[in-house]
Amino acid sequence: MSSSDSPLTILNTLIFPLKFIFLSLTYLPRALLLTFPSSLSTLQSAWFSLFWSHVGPLVRESASPSVIPLLSGLITRGSLKPTPVHPAISGTVLELGPGSGQWTSTLSRFSSNITKILGVEPNTGIHPLLRSQIKKNNLEDKYTIVPCGVEDLASSGKVEKESVDSIMTVLCLCSIPEPQKNIKELYTYLKPGGRWYVYEHVKQGPEAPRWLAIYQSVLNLIWPHFIGGCEMCRDTPKWLKEAGPWGDIDLSRPEKSVWYETMPNVIGVLTK
Ligand SMILES: C[S@@+](CC[C@H](N)C(=O)[O-])C[C@H]1O[C@@H](n2cnc3c(N)ncnc32)[C@H](O)[C@@H]1O
């Protein structure tokens, strides 16, 4: 970890979640205008769709240097290797929470090794954006949108247990309900030998300064209300490791992490 960053960089990183909340707020009036007098859940769905249509591409830009090598199998113990350490994403792929389809262009790079993609996305308000990305990236004959949350996947009957070669979760395990239970449930969809590609933001680890962990918990009191239910303080690595028996767990903080991150990430591949 670097300790040479300027106070301004540190300050900017610390206030980043507040700026993000403010940015999200600016989309609320338009969402209200579009959905009034519909239900609160319709408003929340429209608000997140509007917000993510703007923010999604920015998030992709900053996460691409991590996510593209991850899906290529080039990441191990949080660092980039010149040759693959894991197989690239392939076979039947379950993409959880694809949102506006920011990773469809990346998935299309692996198209020749992908049989089909099931995009489990409950926010129907964002489906038109997702569909346009699927079309733009020539994935129409491979990509199926499953219009439900992970918690309803079993009852939807759309995905068989032990039928999935690759699960992909990019910045979405923070948003699902009952994460511990639903991560366990997702594990059951993987074939033996199947791989789970993970890039998520998580709660501060024991190495973080105490004040930073407290700051993250305080931010988390308001954050989910503005960012589509996203939670900042989830122990996702623990729940992933405990989801079931794994053949191999290669999940770490990215090599270039800095100590003052308010939203530390984990990255890696778990193999069943
Ligand atoms: C922060 S966004 C990330 C979207 C996308 N993965 C990306 O990187 O741009 C989180 C996504 O998880 C989705 N989500 C929320 N609840 C979910 C659930 N119960 N099951 C599956 N996805 C869910 C949201 O609708 C949203 O699209």
Automatic annotation (TrEMBL):
It comes from the Eukaryota. The chain crosses the membrane at residues 6-28. GO terms for biological process: methylation. One of its GO terms (molecular function) is S-adenosylmethionine-dependent methyltransferase activity. Keywords: Membrane, Methyltransferase, Transferase, Transmembrane, Transmembrane helix. CDD domains: AdoMet_MTases (cd02440). InterPro entries: Methyltransf_11, SAM-dependent_MTases_sf, Thiol_S-MT. Residues 94-197 form the Methyltransferase type domain. It holds the Pfam family Methyltransf_11. This is S-adenosyl-L-methionine-dependent methyltransferase.
